[in-house]
Amino acid sequence: MTRHFLTVADLSSEELIAILDRSSELKALRGTSAHPQPLRGKSIAIVFEKASTRTRLSFEVGIHELGALPVTLISKDTQLGRGEPIEDTARMLDRYVHGVVYRTFGHDRLETLAAHASIPVVNGLSDKLHPVQLLADMMTIRECADPPLEKARVAWIGDGNNMAHSWIVSASVAGFDLALACPSGYQPDEGIVAAARDRGASVRVVSRPEEALEGATVVTTDVWASMGQEAEMAARQDAFSGFIVDDAAMGRASDDAIFLHCLPAHRGEEVSASVIDGPKSRVWDEAENRLHTQKALLEWLVS
Ligand code: CP
Ligand code: NVA
What we know:
Order of helices and strands: HEHEHEHEHEHEHEHEHHEHH
Radius of gyration: 19 Å
Strand content: 5-15%
CATH topology of the largest domain: Rossmann fold
CATH superfamily of the largest domain: Aspartate/ornithine carbamoyltransferase
Distance between the termini: 14 Å
Helix content: 40-55%
Largest sheet: 5 strands, parallel
Number of domains: 2
CATH class of the largest domain: Alpha Beta
Bound molecules: phosphoric acid mono(formamide)ester, norvaline
Number of strands: 9
């Protein structure tokens, strides 16, 4: 049966750890003659309905390094962007390529694509979830943070958005503790929290950053207005006042806490320049790890 990766919960805990272990191996092998090319002769489509820098770069380079051809489609230049049904796009895509990465708005569009494609579908970000980012984030925690991943205490400060949801789902698969501080009206989807708790996740949603930060070994945040929410920015700046991750916030976390951010970041809004550009920040390793984790994911899904 074709496997897809629409959410981190599409992996068992054992599969997740195997992919993260393989990501580290591929990182060590990068640029050497021993680096494998398990997708040699194959092609992978990458379809964007929203902007991207990291996702496009990391998938294109990673697919090339696995020996396959990346084919990037910007939706507005395609028939998909002119209204061709997603079902027909799915049926056509699997006649040409061996997998597809899809960045879209509604998560239902990813589910429709997966339901009608016989090739693996990878979520490259939806309004609901950004699971490929979490693979990189968890790899970075394993590399940088002491204790190990399942013992990490993660504090999310900010919007209950697609990244917050992905941390919640990941807590249920990886076993780390997660506390999310979100302003009233911007809390994560209750169904996602409940489903994660049903799978055994330790997840708390609180209203003040200091409640989440106490003892955290990882502090993370994201923009206050995601792609598609630009018109809400003024209202959101009011609502998120006090939710900046600055030196005072990091001072409440564990002494050896690291700072993560999926990027792009807005210095002076969700994070201060002193934190994102400071010694606790691991955001550039995190961005690099997109490449290694997605290669391990595609090797597992497609080859
Ligand atoms: N973090 C991330 O997905 O970045 P891009 O939007 O640049 O792809
Ligand atoms: N929450 C952000 C993540 C960008 C990588 C967005 O959806 O725009």
